[in-house]
């Protein structure tokens, strides 16, 4: 495989049929999955999809061996094939590869999901992501965006001279956050270990050791419930900086998020469900003030008498889900911030 669909369209879509013919581009080599076939008598069309996009292929008895062509007509949607040939444009001006050689690379044993309905069942989409990617082309962008976001975050931290590290995944005691851990056993040491719920303690030890700026982008594990806000394993960024202030950290975090958003969205405006969110300005508010703002029946004296845990529970039940615009919540009660 030497060429990708997206690159071919980018290079040759603007050429006229005659100009493309005059260039005699006959060394094209692509590979991908068959997502559409129109089988006819002496010639057939197929659409091949690779990781970059789709391109049409024309196969006929005049350009490949007749036995190979007869085999080609029996191939199925989902089969992965290799194509070599010459570029041309059809009467409808669609860029197409006229195949001089075709090969079946991998046979699809099971049929693809319905090409019109896609994969509608949510459970199947989550449990068999490869099927979701195969049938819902727009889902691939989610993965590409995720990769771009992580790279942008990493770049922002590197530009500020943070050192990327990897800390232990298995801890002798659970710590770094309040959550139930996954438990495993180290057979050689004959001892119980815990999959980490946060890298915080080990990152802070690096600061104690003399590093001033460290970060880690890695997996954490929490043996909690499943919801739109909770997953047993997830990727988390944690970074720590010595000799700085809360204001500086807030400013850096805001700029880092904005940069990532603009990279994949070309804008600071994003849609989330029915909400339109603007990231141009982040709000900063104390937790107690937000509780007062969202609970008309509570006054400042009552807030002052509340314990930290009670105040946090009230925040989580009445405020958190209503914070739509980007907000830095500061002033967490000391009782629920043992590591800060």
How does this model look, in words?
With 340 residues, this protein is α+β, with helices and mostly antiparallel strands. It folds into three domains: 5-106, Beta Barrel (OB fold (Dihydrolipoamide Acetyltransferase, E2P)); 139-266, BirA Bifunctional Protein, domain 2; 282-340, no CATH class. Helix content is 33%, strand content 29%. It has helices spanning 5-12, 17-23, 66-74, 122-127, 129-135, 139-159, 200-209, 246-265, 287-294, 300-305, 308-318; strands spanning 28-39, 43-50, 53-60, 80-89, 95-106, 163-164, 170-171, 183-186, 191-195, 213-221, 233-241, 269-272, 275-278, 283-286, 327-330. The chain has a five-stranded mixed beta barrel with strand order 1-2-3-5-4. Strands 6-10-11 form a three-stranded mixed β-sheet. The protein is elongated and about 85 Å long. The mean pLDDT is 93.
